[in-house]
Amino acid sequence: MFSIKLLVLSDVHGAKWKLDDLIFQTNPDVIVIPGDLPSSIDFPVLVMTYGRGGNRTNYVRNIYRRFIERLTYKQIRTSKRLLTQIASYNIPVMLIHGNTETQETRDWLSLFSHRYPNIFWISDTSAIIDNTQFIGHGWVAVPNEYNRELTPGEISEDIARLILLDTIGRSDHHADRTILISHAPPLNTSIDYLPHKRIHVGSKPVREMLDSKLADIVISGHLHEARGIHHSKKGWWGINAGAVVEDVACTIDLEDNSVVWYKNVINKIGIPYLLYSRRVKYGYDQQK
Predict the structure, then answer these.
(1) Rounded to an integer, what distance in angstroms lies between the CA atom of residue 166 and that of residue 52?
(2) Cα 220 off chain centre by
(3) What does the pLDDT look like over 105-118, one tens digit per residue?
(4) Is the pLDDT of residue 288 over 60?
(5) Separation of alpha carbons 78 and 73, rounded Å
(6) pTM for the full predicted model
(7) Strand pairing partners for 128?
(8) Distance between CA atoms of residues 9 and 20, nearest Å
């Protein structure tokens, strides 16, 4: 089986990355972006929300309702900057959405990917390289009993399960191996646990798919604090790649499934890094 090295760049959130250095250092065969590529932070709206005694729920409501056109413009602008650079390397890119991209941003990402033969928009579909199949699932499954303000890529478990099963049904079942690229990690694993909340918040449909042996590997992100590797007793293994915006990237060598972590991958002089690296400390991610 042909060996493939993957460079995983998850949860960029519009940060200005040192991509030239990282590509030269890692020399990947395929680049994987498991969602949340564009910015989801609008600093003036953030200051307004918290300055008035708001919390994460209030910010989500403000940014995705009242200021959604402003955010979409910012997301498309940052996505264009990042993808134009990454496309110039002519390295295959597996791209999906995460929970923060608006519907208009997702539509733009799909259209933009058609301009470059090396960018594969695989949200809710799949692609094969050297008989390795990549299946994309950007949705974050939220338990039906949860009652909170949702970001655009968060949907109920029931709907997420139907979408995932439909995507699997349309995939190629004769590939040598199948890699699920899921924005959210699987539920009840070492890569979906939030230590500051002491809970597991991964995706139940993704876990069900993996336990049913419909994929060999899962590559995810979303939960920045749960970066790491998980080996299941049912034969599959997975990785939460952490967040580029918090200065973390990794490579996966599919010949021996080895993982190497990298730091110093972004320019830390900027609002995205400062906010995301401190959001737990200052309570920006708390549900109230």
Answers:
(1) 44
(2) 6
(3) 999 999 999 999 99
(4) no
(5) 9
(6) 0.94
(7) 133
(8) 13
Task: For residue 251, give the amino acid letter.
Answer: T
**pLDDT tier at 220 (50, 70, 90 boundaries)?**
very high
What separation in angstroms does the CA of 108 have from each of 68, 75, 111, 112, 196? Answer: 15, 10, 5, 6, 35
Give the full edge-to-edge strand order of the sheet including 258-262.
119-121, 93-95, 30-33, 5-8, 249-253, 258-262
* pLDDT above 70 for 287: no
Candidate CATH numbers 3.60.21.10, 3.90.550.10, 3.90.226.10, 3.30.1360.120; the one for domain 5-282 = 3.60.21.10
The token pair at 80 is: 């264009």
Provide the token pair at 264: 């110093």
Say if residues 153 and 182 touch (Cβ distance below 8 Å).
Answer: no
Residues 6+ apart with CB under 8 A from 129: 4, 29, 30, 92
Instruction: Share the mean pLDDT of the chain.
Output: 92
How many CB atoms within 10 Å of residue 121? Answer: 20
